[in-house]
Every structure is written in structure tokens, then in C-alpha cells.
Amino acid sequence: xxxxxxxxxxxxxxxxxxxxxxxxxxxxxxxxxxxxxxxxxxxxxxxxxxxxxxxxxxxxxxxxxxxxxxxxxxxxxxxxxxxxxxxxxxxxxxxxxxxxxxxxxxxxxxxxxxxxxxxxxxxxxxxxxxxxxxxxxxxxxxxxxxxxxxxxxxxxxxxxxxxxxxxxxxxxxxxxxxxxxxxxxxxxxxxxxxxxxxxxxxxxxxxxxxxxxxxxxxxxxxxxxxxxxxxxxxxxxxxxxxxxxxxxxxxxxxxxxxxxxxxxxxxxxxxxxxxxxxxxxxxxxxxxxxxxxx
Length: 294
Prior knowledge:
The chain is mainly alpha-helical. It contains twelve helices and no strands.
């Protein structure tokens, strides 16, 4: 038999921002839809070499471009290559560019913004003026110069996009750290003799992860659109590699005769961007500290 006095005096089970955020996120159907779509596309991209209906470069010159049919669900391109297969392989490059370039921006931006916001004073002024200078540089000229100096390769594309997208991330993190550095738990950690690097690594960065995660989900679609734009201009992924942006670029050239060459890769990119935006909006609402007080 349970003692009612002991049951009443039992401590209430604690919760956390992340647990509350997950509870609120599960109530957002659009965010869950976005998460499911992204998981689906990531699984398809990982399993493409094993589940693709045709070989990546398998072509039939006699067939040429043909509309969707039972043999080729999304039709074929002008070289007789199956569009479904090319879109599946293109998803590997587009998603990889989105995630890797965003990871580069995430690492640089979080470290830069945290150091600038915590150091303050002259260090903060110098670091953020450098960010302002980089903001003023035309991105396309920066990409063209990199391509001319180092040549075209996919790794350079990752680094070039990530080296630009970190600027906004740094500003967001800096603002969060400036609000946190005068909090009692930071001052207590400093009074205990902890080094600045330990305070940054153990206390400041973990407490900025909420806004960082939200902005990350919104950065991935921007990066994917940027890669598609560069590929459309001929500065991104080059054949024989393919991405959704490159497929769209090729589809535009023959959209009047073969509209499916533009519609299907454009649809795949659009669905992914919508899913990421839905997920980002849901995470923003779920991880909002003010919402946890309601």
C-alpha cells in the first residue's frame, strides 16, 4: 500500500527545453511532414546505387528523349538516360552539398561568433568588422576567382559555399553569447577558475544550440538553391556528375520540346526545400524558450 504522505512529498520529475521542444514538435504536423520527407530523401540517396532502376550512365541513343512510360516512370533525357535514375543520383550530390556546406558554415560560424561575443571589446570589434568586409564582397566574383585559381571540383564547391554562409551564423551566435556571458552560471564558472575555452565549450556553445539548430535547417535549403544556381550558370557540378541544379539547367534548354526534363528535377528540389522550411519553422516554434512558459 502506497503511503499518501510519501507520494505527495515525492519530488516532481524535471523536464528540459529539448524534451518540451520535442513534445511541441510532435504536435506540428507540417514539421513532422518535413522531417519525414527529409528522412525519405536521405534514405533514397544512400541506397541509390542498389535501388536505382538503371545504371547511372546507361543510355539508349535510339530511344532518345521519351515521355514517362511504364519502362521509364519519369521519362528519359536526350541521350536516352532514365530520368528517375539521374534524379536519384542527383539527390546524392544536392543533399551532400547542402549538409556538408552547412556543416562547414556551422563550425566556422559558431566558433567565430562565440569567441567574438564572449571576448567583447576590441577583439569583438575586429572580428565583426572582418565579417562586415566579407559581407561586402560579391559572392559570384569570389566563386569565379576560386574556380580560376584552384580549378573546378566538388570539394571546392562545399568550401566556397560554406565559407560564405557562416557569416550570418556568426552574427546570430554572437548575439546569443552576448546575452549569456553576464548570466550567473557563466560568472560562477569563471569564479571557479575555469578557463575561457572550457566556459565556451561546456557552457556557452551548448546554450546557443537552440537558435543554431533552427538556423541550420533554414541554411540547408539556401545552400541547395545556391548550388542549383551555380550549376545553372555552369559554375557548379560538372558532368559526368549530376545534381538537381544541373538537371534543371539541362531541362531549361529543352523545356518546350521535353518539359518533363525540367518538371521532375524541379519538383524534387521544390519538395525538399518546402520540407526543410516546414521543419525549420517547426523547430523555431518548438525551441522557443518563451513558448515553454505558456
